[in-house]
């Protein structure tokens, strides 16, 4: 996997990048390769936040930009 420096845009094969607040952010590619939702509310969760407890899960889904992080392996509920 290629790691980006903090000034590059995230790439499909990148594991993480630094977001606009300077926080390390895992990419959907990395999270999908990990194979499960960790329940931490990751920004690019491809599993539709399935392990995140309510009411946080509903809030994260509502605030997610359309299509971001959703894959055929993720569960839409």
H/E series, N to C? EEHH
Low-confidence stretches: 72-77
- N-end to C-end Cα span: 31 Å
How does the helix and strand content classify structurally?
A: alpha+beta
Strand tally: 2
Radius of gyration from CA coordinates: 12 Å
Mean pLDDT over the full residue set: 80
Strand order, main sheet: write it out. Answer: 1-2
The tally of helices reads: 2
Largest sheet geometry: 2 strands, antiparallel
Strand content: 5-15%
Oligomeric composition of the shown chains = single chain
> Could you estimate the helical fraction of the residues in percent?
10-25%
Using the alpha-carbon principal axes, give the shape: globular
Topology readout:
Layout: E1 16-18, E2 24-26, H1 28-34, H2 56-63
Structure description:
With 77 residues, this protein is α+β, with helices and mostly antiparallel strands. The protein has one domain. The chain has 2 helices and 2 strands. Strands 1-2 form a two-stranded antiparallel sheet.
Provide a brief overview of the structure.
The chain is 19% helix and 8% strand. By secondary structure, the protein is an alpha+beta fold.
Q: Characteristics of this structure?
A:
single chain; 77 residues; alpha+beta; two-stranded antiparallel ribbon; globular; disordered C terminus
């Amino acid at each position: 996997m290629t790691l980006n420096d903090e000034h590059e845009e995230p790439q499909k094969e990148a594991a993480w990048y630094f977001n606009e607040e300077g926080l390390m952010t895992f990419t959907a590619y990395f999270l999908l390769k990990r194979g499960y939702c960790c329940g931490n509310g990751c920004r690019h969760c491809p599993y539709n936040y399935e392990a995140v407890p309510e009411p946080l899960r509903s809030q994260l889904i509502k605030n997610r930009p359309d299509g971001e992080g959703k894959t055929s392996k993720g569960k839409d509920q």
